[in-house]
Design brief:
- Helices cover 46% and strands 15% of the residues.
- The protein has 363 residues and is α/β, with parallel strands linked by helices.
- Strands 3-2-1-4-5-6-7 form a 7-stranded parallel sheet, with helices on both faces.
- Helix 1 packs across helix 16, helix 7 packs across helix 12 and helix 10 runs parallel beside helix 15.
- The radius of gyration is 20 Å and the shape is globular.
- The site of uridine-diphosphate-N-acetylglucosamine has 19 residues, from helix 1, helix 5 and helix 11.
Length: 363
Amino acid sequence: MLVIHVVGARPNFMKVAPIMAEMALQPDVFQQVLVHTGQHYDVNMSDVFFRDLGMRAPDEFLGVGSGSHAQQTARVMMGFEPVVEKHRPDWVLVVGDVNSTMACALVAAKLGVRIAHVEAGLRSGDWSMPEEINRVVTDRISDLLFTPSADADANLAHDGIDPARVHRVGNVMIDSLVRLLPSARRQPVMHGLGLSRRGFALVTLHRPANVDDPEGLREILQALAGIAQRLPVVFAVHPRTRKVMEAHGLGRVTGGVRMIEPLGYLDFLCLTDAASVVITDSGGIQEETSYLGIPCVTVRPNTERPVTVELGTNRLVGATAGEILSASVQCLQGAPSTPGSIPLWDGKASSRIAWVMGNQSPR
Ligand code: UD1
């Protein structure tokens, strides 16, 4: 069975790595081709993840880079079509909800190649998010849908997806976390930044809704400056966010906040695991903090990962300085959180995926 795996953007790498590792254990069943679309291309948004996760170099690199949604999606589709025609795979496996995910799924569907979607069924209900469009389209055209949680199964049933296509396997991102947490804890990044365990807040922000409008971003940065009066704040700044900050001179607002470049997988996991509180608008970090038992303040009005609020450590707040500051201070003053116990988030999701795929009928 020939499987093409697609990666493109930062949150894809830690999802595909454990699936490829699992399939590599069965060379008599699976042949694998790794395609990197190049949606993310900076060393610290892409290459460092290959090193940290022990992934082999891509077999095909499409080099699409940045652009508007239409440009980026179109470039991925135009680059991916000849790759599928060349390899003639049995399956195209896509993960998550980035533009590369949807673009490659569309190409496969039109060429009549079966699609497996990992992290299927998540819904924020928020159509202003490009990811929501990517999720709905990808799920609708997928042949196999691997979900992380029961809410995702319910969303797919609601959308009329045949339940026989849906397999609840757990969370592949947690597979990478479980495998690499011991190495992450040995990273020297805390020492390098002069941080102590449970002695700092960790921040990431990159959603267009939070960072593209300079006035909205200013408001959030004011909250961070307020938190920095209480304890050190480390802000790993996404390139999208950095551009807006530089264009509007917002660096001045962040008095006391330690701004650093985006980190690799191991360094960021090391900091997440040691933080007092994490403030973010990322999807995956809501999951990782829930698993680790680190309080997470998510600056969004909704989440496609409600299980992290119900069973994990996540709380949603509006993008105002007051809400972010007060939720963060409550986390700092509250009782320590306990690691979330979310069914099937156990480090074995990718082995379940390999089992299900290995038992599919030939095309
Ligand atoms: C993308 C995903 C988002 C995911 C995020 C993780 C979509 C629609 N969005 O958002 O779901 O949460 O990745 O990071 O697919 N840039 C660089 N270097 C890079 C990559 C990007 O400088 O290596 C800059 C460019 O200015 C680019 C901007 O960041 O225009 C946005 O990149 P893009 O891939 O369009 O979206 P993200 O905001 O990264």
